[in-house]
Structures are given as structure tokens and as C-alpha cells.
Amino acid sequence: MPWRSQMRMIRWVRAAVRSWARPGSVGEIHSSRPAGPVTTCKAAGRRRSAPRQPCLRAVNGAAPTCDDRRPPTGTDRVAECAQRVQADAYINVQGDEPFIAPAAIDAASEALVHLSAETLAVNAYAKLHDAASVIDHNVVKVVVGEKGNALMFSRQPIPYPRGHRPNYLRQLGLYGFTRSGLDLFRRLEQGPVERVEGVEMLRLVEHGHGVRMLAVGDEGIAVDTPEDLERACAMLRSRS
Question: How are beta strands 169-178 and 89-93 bridged, if at all?
Fold first, then answer.
């Protein structure tokens, strides 16, 4: 079978279904911070009473409530879903990230509850340990500032190691947005750097909005190439 067909299979059968199931593996997502009246909070396939607590719901890009049109990015698609799914915050696990840990999703939901007013989103990242990934344009790198917000995303190796050897960080396909942040993202125009790099979180950075970066454990790989496919299949076989 041609590798492109195999890629479709791994993404839409194994990877997408596995990623779709990931939010269902996390605990109940809710906050103890007072807010408007919310009677139920749905996560992990369970329902519980949660009066006067903001509800965070996991919405995946494959959600059946989305339109069939193709928005420019996965986050734009989630923003369309959010117009039909009312919640205070949203978590997006990309379909090409089949190994995202449930604990990472829990951490993203907790971080959303404690965001500062000027920060509209959270994005998970992990350390890169091999040189091949550093120079791989399919692996998006991120530079994180002293306050924990993203300074820059790029498919190039950043920062450039002119004087010292830096710690390279990989952006993961795990995003969390407040409702206002997701609505703003949808209304913002794609900037020139986002269009060139093809990294959607640059939209907030280019327009001067904060993206809080969240360090998490990285269990696996993103599936972007035929080589990734082979490694992902091997990892899935070893865990089955």
C-alpha cells in the first residue's frame, strides 16, 4: 500500500481515534473558582453536578458538530465548533498526536483555569533530545520567555546556537483556549509569519497576545512523515 494511503489510515483510524479517545481518559474538568451558573460539567464520558463552576469541554477537530468546510487551521475549525458547544474553555488535541498523555490534557485544563487576563491560550511543549528532530521542519520548535509565554514558533532550529548550546523545545499539538481567546483567534487575520511558517499559534503572538507554554512529558511522536508512520506503528504494536 502506498505510504500516503497508510498515512491516511494511521491518522484517520488509529491516530485520530486514539487522539479522540484521549480527552475521554482525563478526569472531570472543572474549576472551584466562582462563576456563572453551570449545572453540569462533562468530561471522560461522565456527568456530575457542578453548580456555579465554569465548565471546560474537550473539543477535537473531528467533532461532528463542525461544518464540512475547510478552515485554514485546526484551531479555526475548533472555533467553529465552539459556536455550537457552549463552554468557558476548550481543549484541542490534534489528530496527528496519538501519544498525548491524559495527564498532559489534565495539566492543560488546570492551566486554563489559572490564566492571567492578558493570556488567552495554553500550548504544551516538551524537550527535544535528538539532533534529527531539531533540524526536521515537520517538528515545530518554540522559544519560551522568562514568564512562561511563547516568544516565537518556527520550523527552523530556534534559538540559533551562536554562543551556547540551547535547549530545543518541541511544540505539541495540545492547545487550550478560553472562550474569549478562541473567539478572538477566529476573528484575527493570519499574519505574514503564520502564513510562512504554517504554525497557527503564531497568530496570537503576531498580534501581541500571550500564549502560556506548558511543559509536559512527551510519550511519543507526531505522525507527519512515512518514517513517523513506521515508528508510530511500532510503538502502537509494542503497547497493544
Answer: antiparallel
